[in-house]
Amino acid sequence: MKAIIVDDEKHVREGLMLLAEWDKFGIETIFEAADGEVAMKIISEQQPEIIFTDMNMPRCDGIDLLKWIHSSDFHSKTIVVSGYDDFKYTKNAITYGSFDYILKPINPNELNETLSRAVVEWQEQNKKRLSVLENDKVIWDHLFSSALNNGNLSNRLVEQLESEFGVRISNRPCFIAILPMKILISSKYEGDADRAFTSVLLKCNDILDKNGIAFRNINKEEEIVLLLWEKAAVKKVIRTVSKSIGCPIEIGEQHASFIHAYETASSNLKNYNLLENGMQVVNSLSPVYLLDYSEEIKWAIQSGSMEQMNEILDRIFKTFEENNYFPYEQINIWESQFAILKDHWLKEYELKKRDLLYRGVHYWKDNGGFSFCKFKEEKKKEFDHLIKMVSGCKFQKEKNSVQMIEEFIRKNYQKDIKLQDIADRFFLSREYISRKFKQEYDETITDYLMKIRIEKAKELLKNPYLKIYEISDSVGYQNDKYFIKVFKKREGITPSEFRNTLKTN
User: Fold this and answer.
1) Which of 250, 296, 394, 439: disulfide with 269, CB 3.0–4.6 Å?
2) Modified residue 4-aspartylphosphate is at which positions (predicted)?
3) What is the mean pLDDT of residues 447-464?
4) Could you tell me how far CA 113 lies from the centroid of its own chain?
5) What CATH number should be reported for the domain whose range is 2-131?
6) Beta bridge partners of 33
């Protein structure tokens, strides 16, 4: 619990702090305010259960504070502490719902007896408020979501459900189905989550009727859970809900434990094969991660080439098509990793109008089916829009093509890099690349690559346990004799002689 002491006299606030038996009454946090204006701000933010206030203060006095508390519908208990045994103050304290009135100087026994009664009354009234609120939708969501963590429904909740549905559910196994809302919110409700949940929950509970209940899972972002007990009605109900909502729903195993029933439903949803209407034809395939292609995506975005981007995306899509497997989990992975890549590039180019970026979410059919063809189109449109925004940015910090080529060489020096490969990657002619690179770095690409490889080799030669042929292979030379020849040509000594100089030094 929390309390606040409002008084313009510091010694009075300190006296109350010392005299009240806070720990005894479960009050852990005590705030202070020198006038009603400051107190209003603290009360609004912290909502303390107990308020001590003086009546005669500068700026905003106790009467104004009591009026404000009364009109704001706080459930706090207010105790007036005043040096004035004045009818005007007493009348206002009563009128605006003060719990009690204590005169200064403060008697410790009277103070703690009053505080005790205030705490007890607040606790009793709070129980009544919670009891009334239990029938509220939000409270039901909390109660059911809590049961998903605890494993079972509380006895009190079971009694209420049995009364509501007229069926026995105590110690009875249940089915749990999961309805993912993220795509629905974006594609059918224009991003309005509250409207989506209100509408979908209403539809679900109308269809479920006495067969079960649908609630919002507050433990997970954007998820509705359907709880069912009647085995005979499960398939028909789920089919009707899916058709009405237009979204895949996956059901778990029947089980007495909420946790087990939920976990199996969650696992089934993740593996729901959208290319085969839910049939789990493959279990061994790992999800595809966009971040694994981040380097290739980077070059496509920096070069402003949608052609290059489409080639990358087509390769990814081909993996799904060849295996005829696209699990529901893949959508969440794709969306979250695209968001990471998008945020990185928008930050890189100081683009702040993030909401203007196209959101490709229109790949669900009206009947709830998934269209992979539309998914591919939508994802390509997202990247196309991102590339156009980056390319058209006024304050673009994009490196020029030659600098990008240098970075590519530096990161891939250990590979067999050919000039034609670089030309194909950056959509530039070999002649242009050779000429521009020499102008920028005063070396040919061949000499620059050799320099990087030799520098890396010199670092590796510091490790006495690495063989010369191992170092040669690590820096991109498959032939160690050729490596020795190149090294000597550039450094004037062989790799072994260089290593010996390190030992001498």
Assistant:
1) 250
2) 54
3) 93
4) 48
5) 3.40.50.2300
6) 6
